[in-house]
């Protein structure tokens, strides 16, 4: 696997995914009982944005965060959800030794493990899986003193079999693969089928890129066959005629928390406006399979 998330940390797709992840965690926390957060492709846990990404051949790569979190940092009028999100990022910066958070631009960006760790209550538990041994080592270092956090060097799809159902009988599972392989959508669907067979009541969130509309639409059609409540939110930073390669991304949520759609919808136009890369930027949410 050649994918390194440091190249993309803090880009528009990260921002979109993590804002929705925050809402999902908050939604599950409306109930007092704890839950398992299972991250199947956890990465390194967090990223230093002041260090320029370096390609395997030694060339520096332009960071992507200025067109992502850089667009939100210090921007007025974002509303309570995005202010909550930025507050979380500033807490992460403080943990990294940036007192009060950097005022001009972020210096560090948390991956999904840190987003959830900063939100977790004492009764919530995190299981973080990463297949790359060097990234798993960095992840273990990040959470070396954290209680109720376990890191496993493990294939994420294997983790769906090994860690479900959880003792808590509640779970939020994030499936966020790199999509290096053309067969990744198929692997995601296979993982979801296995997870639902083992634990049908879990909440499952899947991040996916929108590089070809037809592939995303086919994924949606196959998801409807799972016959469980399925909510989709998508962000497009450019229209179909744009030269931008990855024009957007989406998050699919199976068994979403109650009333979460009403919390997601108001955030979408704000994100589309802030993160637009070209004409035709938009965002929307809709049900593939309505709630029963």
Description:
The protein has 292 residues and is α/β, with parallel strands linked by helices. It has a single domain (5-289), classed as Vaccinia Virus protein VP39 (Rossmann fold), CATH 3.40.50. Helices cover 35% and strands 19% of the residues. It has helices at residues 12-28, 69-72, 80-95, 112-119, 133-142, 156-162, 184-198, 213-224, 260-264, 268-275, and strands spanning 36-39, 46-48, 108-110, 125-130, 149-153, 171-175, 203-210, 230-236, 248-254, 282-289. It has an eight-stranded mixed beta sheet, with helices on both faces. A two-stranded antiparallel ribbon has the order 2-3.
How does the SSE layout of this entry go?
Layout: H1 12-28, E1 36-39, E2 46-48, H2 69-72, H3 80-95, E3 108-110, H4 112-119, E4 125-130, H5 133-142, E5 149-153, H6 156-162, E6 171-175, H7 184-198, E7 203-210, H8 213-224, E8 230-236, E9 248-254, H9 260-264, H10 268-275, E10 282-289
Parallel strand pairs: 1-4, 1-6, 4-5, 6-7
Antiparallel strand pairs: 2-3, 7-9, 8-9, 8-10
Helix pairs in contact: 1-4, 3-4, 6-7
Count of DSSP helices?
Answer: 10
- CATH architecture verdict: 3-Layer(aba) Sandwich
Order of helices and strands: HEEHHEHEHEHEHEHEEHHE
Class based on secondary structure composition and strand pairing: alpha/beta
Described by strand count, sense and barrel closure, the largest sheet is: 8 strands, mixed
Task: Count the domains.
Answer: 1
Unreliable runs = none
CA-based shape: globular
CATH topology: Rossmann fold
Radius of gyration: 18 Å
Distance between the termini: 39 Å
How is the largest sheet built, in terms of strand order?
A: 5-4-1-6-7-9-8-10
- Overall pLDDT metric: 93
Tell me the β content: 15-25%
CATH class term? Alpha Beta
Any idea what the CATH superfamily is called? Vaccinia Virus protein VP39
Helix % is 25-40%
């Amino acid at each position: 696997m050649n994918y390194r998330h440091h190249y993309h940390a803090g880009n528009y797709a990260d921002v979109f995914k993590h804002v929705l992840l925050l809402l999902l965690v908050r939604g599950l926390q409306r109930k007092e009982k704890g839950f398992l957060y299972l991250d199947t492709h956890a990465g390194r846990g967090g990223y230093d944005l002041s260090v320029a990404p370096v390609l395997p051949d030694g060339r520096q790569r332009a960071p992507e965060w200025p067109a992502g979190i850089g667009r939100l940092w210090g921007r007025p009028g974002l509303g309570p959800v995005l202010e909550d999100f930025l507050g979380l990022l500033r807490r992460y910066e403080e943990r990294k030794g940036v007192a009060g958070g950097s005022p001009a631009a972020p210096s560090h960006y948390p991956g999904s493990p840190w987003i959830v760790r900063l939100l977790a209550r004492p009764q919530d538990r995190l299981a973080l899986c990463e297949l790359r041994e060097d990234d798993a080592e960095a992840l273990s270092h990040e959470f070396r003193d954290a209680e109720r956090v376990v890191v496993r060097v493990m294939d994420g799809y294997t983790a769906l079999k090994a860690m479900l159902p959880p003792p808590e009988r509640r779970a939020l599972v994030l499936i966020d693969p790199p999509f290096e392989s053309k067969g990744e959508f198929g692997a995601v669907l296979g993982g979801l089928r296995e997870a639902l067979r083992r634990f049908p009541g879990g909440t499952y969130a899947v991040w996916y890129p929108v590089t070809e509309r037809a592939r995303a639409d086919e994924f949606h059609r196959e998801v409807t066959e799972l016959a469980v409540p399925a909510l989709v939110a998508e962000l497009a930073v450019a229209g179909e005629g744009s030269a931008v390669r990855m024009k957007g991304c989406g998050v699919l949520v199976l068994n979403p928390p109650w009333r979460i759609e009403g919390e997601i919808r108001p955030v979408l136009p704000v994100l589309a406006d802030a993160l637009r890369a070209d004409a035709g930027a938009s965002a929307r949410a809709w049900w593939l399979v309505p709630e029963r």
